[in-house]
Amino acid sequence: MMGPAHSLSGAAAWLGVGAAAAGFGHPMPWPVLVTGALICAGAALAPDLDHKSATISRSFGPLSRILCGIIDQLSHAVYKATRAKGDPRRNGGHRTLTHTALWAVLIGAGASALAVTGDRWAVLGILFVHMVLAVEGLLWRAARTSSDVLVWLLGATSAWILAGILDRPGNGSTWLFTGPGQEYLWLGLPIVLGALVHDIGDALTVSGCPILWPLPIGRKRWYPLGPPKAMRFRAGSRVEVKVLMPAFMLLGGVGGLGALDLF
Question: Which of 105, 170, 232, 246 lies 20 to 30 angstroms, CA to CA, from 146?
Answer without folding.
Answer: 246
